[in-house]
Amino acid sequence: MYGENVCPNPSEPPDLPALGALMVDTARGDRVGEFRGVAGPYWSLRPVGGGAEWEAEPHRVRPALLIEQLRARTARLNARSRGEVL
Known about the structure:
Elements: E1 22-25, E2 31-39, E3 42-46, E4 54-56, E5 61-63, H1 66-81
Antiparallel strand pairs: 1-2, 1-5, 2-3, 3-4
């Protein structure tokens, strides 16, 4: 489906996603995060629903598939129902 390097032309930076768009960081085990902006050469992502942001290489980030979005949101809601997060 997606290769390890998700940008078709790594010499050109990928288009910026909309703020809050769910993205997958392929360099961190396909971790799903919300796009928060640009920090130098990196993109800032944060866990769905809040938490500590992390920086990702834009060429290693892709839009989250619908099923990945659903899994991330469901995991957040389950953690909240268990009282693990607010």
